[in-house]
Every structure is written in C-alpha cells, then in structure tokens.
Amino acid sequence: MNEQLTHMASQVTAGKLTRREFMGKAAALGVSAAMASTIFADAARAAGPKKGGDLKLGLQGGESTNSLDPATYASSVPYMNGRHFGDTLVEVAADGTIEPRLAESVEGSADAKVWTFKLRQGVEFHNGKTMTSEDVLKTMQRHSNEDSKSGALGIMKGIASMKADGEYFQVTLNESNADLPYLMADYHLIIQPDGGMDNPAAGIGTGPYKLEVDEPGVRHLFSKFENHWSDYGHFDSVENVVINDSTARTAALQSGQVHIANRIEPKVADLLGRAPTVTIQSTPGRGHYVFIMHCDTAPFDSNELRLALKYAINREELVEKVLRGYGSIGNDMPINAAYPLFDETIPQREFSIEKAAEHYKKSGHDGSPIILRVADAAFPGAVDAAALFQQTAQQAGIPLEIKREPNDGYWSEVWNVQPFCASYWGGRPVQDQMYSTAYLSTADWNDTRFKLKEFDDLLFAARAELDPAKRKAIYSQMGMMVRDQGGLICPMFNDFVDAVSNQLDGWETDPNGELMNGQVSRKMWFA
Amino acid sequence: MHPVIKLVSQRIALGLLLLFGASALIFGLTEALPGDAAQAVLGQSATPEALANLREEMGLNRPALTRYFEWLGGIVQGDMGTSLTNKLDIATSIGSRLGNTLFLAFWAALVSVPLAIFLGLLAVRYRNRWPDKLISAVTLTTISIPEFLIGYVLVYFVAVKLGMFSPLAMINDSMSFWQKLNAIALPVIVLTMVVLAHMMRMTRAAILNVMQSAYVETAELKGLSNFKVIWRHALPNAIAPIVNVVMLNLAYLVVGVVVVEVVFVYPGMGQYLVDHVTKRDVPVVLACGVIFAAIYIGLNMVADIVAILANPRLRHPK
C-alpha cells in the first residue's frame, strides 16, 4: 500500500472520510474497486463500532401466537427478541469457549459437581431494579421446577439443588458434568426480575435494548437501554419484522427496508449475493437434516437393514441438490467439526450400492415396502431429499416407499412416533448435550430409540472426565457407536444462510446459531 | 309491521342462529384436528412433563363441551377471552388486525367496485366491439393468474426495480395516513385485479339482459344517447344481481385475502387466523371464525335487502 493510501485509510479510521469519498480518491490512484473496498472495510473496522442508527431485521419464524416468555421460545423471532432484551449468565463464544455475561466468572469443583457463578454487580433491569442472586435463582427455578413448561426443562434435569448467596449463585448436580457452563448459556435461560415468576411475558431483562412495541406475528420494536452494563449494543433501536414469506423477505432486503434477513433459501442465495448492496453470510453450523429409524421397531431392529439404508443414500448429491452447496455431508452421527473435541479421523461413510445391497441381503428383509414418512416441515426440501434417497435405494434393490405427511402437526404426530421419518436437529453447543438429549437410553427425545448400555456408560464417564484428550477419545468411540449401530441416517449438515446489508459492519462467523448466534444487534454497527 | 322491517328482523334472527351453528362447527372441527395447543406450542421440544404442565395451565384437561359453553357464555357478554398461546387479550389483538383488514378491504373496494361497474357499462356500450373484447380479455387474464404471482411480479418490478412503492405492506399506528396508503398501494392493486373481472362480467351480463326489454327500446326511440339509456334505464333494473356479486366480492376482500397478506406481509386477520389454527389456539380461532361468518352473513343480508328494495314487486308483496 502506498503512502497516500495509508494516509487515506487512517482518515477513514478517524472518521474524516466517507466510503464514497474514499472510493473516489482510491479510484483516482488507480486502485481497483474491490481492493479499495477491502481497504476501506479494514480501516472502518479499525475505527471501532459506530453508535446510532435503526436496525431492522426481516425474520422468518414468527407467529401471532408468540409470547415474550423466554420459556416458550421455539422459533427465530422469539429467539431474537430474547437476544435483544435479555442476557444469560454466560454465552458460548464463536470459538467454543465460555464468555462471561451476567456472571463474571464460573468455577467448578474438582469433581465437576458443584458450580459457582460469581455475578456481575450493579446490573440494572429495564424496570430500574438491580439484579441480585435471588433473581438468578428464581429464574433457574422457574425453568426447572415441577410446574415448568420451559424449552430448557430437559437440560435442567440433572440439577440437585441451587443456592443464592450474596454475589454468588451455586448449582449442585446429581452427577458430574464438565459442561454445565454450556448448559447455562441456553437462550431460554434469560435472567428476569424475580425470575419472571409474577409476569414471565413482560419482556423485561438486562439486555442492551428494552421493549417498546410487542405485536406478535408482525413486529417487535426495541430501543437502546441507556443503563445497560456492557459495551455491546450500538444501535438506537432494533426492530424484528416478521416476514415469513421467503420472496417477500429477499425483496425487503433488496429494497433496503430491512438490513438483515435470515433463512435465505439456498436456491436464491447465489442470485441475492450478486446484488451490490447485500452480502450472503453462510455459516457452517451444527444443525443437521436427518432420516431417523426406531432401532426397536421391525424392520429397523435389524442393524443390517439400518446399515443397508445408510449405504444407500448419496450424501454428495443431497448436499448439492437440496442444499445447493450451502452445507456439508454428514457421517451418520450427530456431531461434526463445529463441535469442540471432534475427532477428525473417524472415517467418512461413502455411498455404495454394492454394500447397501449386501447388507440388505444379510438383513433377510421380506421385500415389503419400507415406509418413509416425510413433510417439508421436517426440513426445507425433505420431500425432494426423500425422492432422491428412494431412487438410490431402488438401485440397491431396497423398496423404499415415501408417504407424504401434512406439515401441520408433523412434530406431534409423526416425529418421535412413527418408526421411520425425516427430521431436523438444531445441534447443541457441546457433544455431551447433543448425545444426552437424543441418544441416551432414557432421553425423552431419543427419536431413534437407540438404547445401548455401553454408550450410556461412556457418556457418563465423559462428563466426569476433565482431561480434554481423554474426553475426546471417549467421544470418538461414542460417535463410532452411533455411526455403526444407531438409527440415524445423517446425510447432511446445513449452513445458516443469512443476508446482511453492506451498510453494516462487524460480522463474525459464529457456528453457535443463526445471525451470529443472535448477536447481530449487539456486535454489529452501521459503517 | 312494515314488511321490510319484518323481513330484516327475520333475517337478523336467522343470521344469529347461523352464527351459533358456525361457531359450534368451527369448535368441533378444531377439536378434531390432531394434537392440541400444548403440543403445538412445544413442538419438537415437548417432554411429557412440560406437556402435562402446559395442558393444566391452558385448561385443556377439562371436557370439550365445558370449554365450548364457557367460551359461548363469555362471548354473549362481549368477552372473547385470552389467547391460549400468548396470553394476550383476544379482543385487543383482533381489534387492530380487523381494523387493518377492513382498511385494506375498504380501499380495494373503493377502487375496484366503481371501476368494475364503469368498465361493465363501457363493455355494454361497445358490446362485441374491440373495447368490450379488450376489457374482457384483460380482466379475465388478471383473474386467471394466481394472486400471489401477480403480487410477486409487482413487488419485483414496481418495488424492487423501480423503487416506487414499498414491497412490504406493513402498517402500524405510528405511520401517517399517507404513509399507510403508500404502503398498501401494491396489495390494493393486486386485489383490484383479482376481483375486477367477476363484478365487471356480472354487470355486463345483467345489463345486456335488460337491454332487450321494450322500455329500453322506447328510451332509444325517445332519442336518448346510448350511454344515457344504459345508465338511466338499464342499470337500475339490473341492480339486484350486480349488488349480489359486489357483496360477494366485498366479503372475499375481508375474509379471503390471506395469500395476499402473506405475500405483502400485511398484518391482517387472515395470517392471524392461520397462525392460531396451526397452534390449535381454539378461543382465537372461534373468535376469528365468528367475525368472518358475521361479515359474510351481514353482507349477504345487505345484498338481499337491496335486491328487494330495488324491485317494487318484491317491495310490495301481495
């Protein structure tokens, strides 16, 4: 970079030169537009976040039935509402480490059974009250007590007792669990005044933005909370606009009515990315599109048949045709490289008609049609994926029959009820949580009916093991068990595909969730 | 009692009975759908404990009949209750949604009804000549294209490419009247295109029907201009079928526009109802259903009454 360009960049950093001016001058110096754009972005980033502006997010996943009660969050819009107005004790950072939020530090006992959170002092709720350890305790109780209907109830099960003590909040577990801080980062566990016991849906938290307008299914408007404790939250206001229709969402982004849109369909992502005002952010995540078989129900109780089906699916083709490349191939286990302690050496299962036919023959299946139930509610493109699967299975002589189910009621009538269906898992921050949610013999959501004593024992052993190398070895072993004996056919992991206006700066790739793990309103700013 | 008043009161009584029947039917059908509100809310994250707790809280453990009559008892006193899923007062939520729906329907009707009747008259005036054929061809084309497609095409060319109107028709209370009108411009155009043909064709057919009458011939022989004959003599006698079809289309503009709402992200009743049906939120579904039924029944009643008033033979029955 020549001297003049360096000088100009420093002027940008000091806020003395706008993008337009910079680009004009750079062009005069004979610098290509792409190069100048990069230099400008770097310089602007060095200037640090700018304050102000009204951020609008066009989001899929909001209904007029949504509540602000964090216990009920199950789709994108309520999730993002919580991210704007609330804070959790800790957060999982983009690199998979634990980042302190309302807790300044976390400490575990040597056996990983007792965990103590030192709470930040002087944090103010939007209603003017100061956060105490009692509020934290009540919040956790509301998500875990007998009356709880919280989406976080499952992960709170292992807690034996909790205690509030001045600046400290302490959790005692039934069993050792080295991953407890990750569980406390769950997005349902927003700290509310009095734990939200009196009014859970008030939308009052400690986050950078406070609630202004709540119109479920239409929009949710938040304004900057002046007494927020952290440096995050650079906008004057943030608005979640519910735009469930995919075409409307992209049109709104292109015409500048919203600055960020989520769930961009893979088929339009390439086209949209060519627009000069928008950048497509594709983030490899932990979510996976799957077909699940009940290991305890005929004919899927035969591991040979399960293997036959696993070999009969063409993963590359599915990633290319269903995800249009916005994803990666799966390996019949729910874990991928986005997880900490992932073993890269586990061999990839390859598509093989011969092996499929061989295992199918060994299974001794009587040749009656194997019914696969699908609906696009399971994952976008599920019906197409099933059709591709059916064709490749046909080549191996496996008679797969597709039964289309209605989207409506899919999660209550088909998933976890029928022995073979399409499904989706959003992934979890750590391997332990993923396995204990869906692969432990006693798990409520064991949707493959995978019940293996050795596997359960390994899971508990890993929890109590504090040495990362040994834990990694155990997880590797567990992954192989699910891969070779489980009821999970995992053809692909999907990317989070978001689109962001070029007016914004500060995007970081974060595999923990869509929209930078929901942190866009905290960490981005108008350039 | 004047026969018209008697007729109107009979019609209203019958309408109320129909509403009651409709509410029972809606309740029965929603109950017959698989799953309940608790399952729908928890979705994939449902555990048996959470389900049981939520059912208890929503009061879903009580018998269906009890719940229905409780709701009925509330609504006759004007209390619609609260939503099962988000605990908001139904009357308040519906209030703003219904207001939006009526706002859109009103402007769509204001544009489409006069336009349809005018085009109908024009088509009769130039029947079987090129203006008639052009009007028919254009309106039949727009009614034949699915409304979401017209919507998307308009959004792409008018809003995104030309930047004229907003692609989203999101309106809220903080917007000025003109901002609101600007926001709903595209959906109003789409709705107009969808309802135009039906009303226009009916106007044309009804007027052509009476054009053969002796009094039209007399009017022509009197030396009245062609358009005046249609306007003064043919139209009043053809008003009954026209009002009928106009009312049907008005009802459609209120209760049948969910697709347009989705395409333009308009915060109206349709999307509100669909969301709550998916979540099996019975009190809201019932409230919406009854309002829609009332609008439908009311508009049809108006059409009947106008038809009777417009026809002296029906106005003075022997």
Q: Can you give a write-up of this model?
A:
The complex is a heterodimer of chains A (527) and B (318). Chain A is an alpha+beta fold. Chain A has helices at residues 3-13, 19-28, 33-46, 76-85, 133-144, 180-183, 246-254, 266-273, 303-311, 315-321, 353-363, 382-395, 410-413, 431-438, 453-464, 468-485, 514-518, 520-523, and strands at 54-59, 90-92, 98-100, 103-108, 114-119, 159-165, 168-173, 209-215, 219-224, 237-242, 260-261, 278-293, 327-329, 370-374, 400-404, 420-425, 488-501, 504-505, 525-526. Chain A contains 18 helices and 19 strands. In chain A, strands 1, 8, 9, 10, 11, 12, 13, 16 and 17 form a nine-stranded mixed beta sheet that branches. Chain A is globular, with a radius of gyration of 25 Å. Chain B is mainly alpha-helical. The longest helix of chain B has 36 residues, at 90-125. The radius of gyration of chain B is 24 Å and the shape is globular. Chains A and B meet through helix 7 and helix 13 of A and helix 2, helix 3, helix 5, helix 7 and helix 12 of B.
What's the short version?
The complex is a heterodimer of chains A (527) and B (318). Chain A has 527 residues and is an alpha+beta fold.
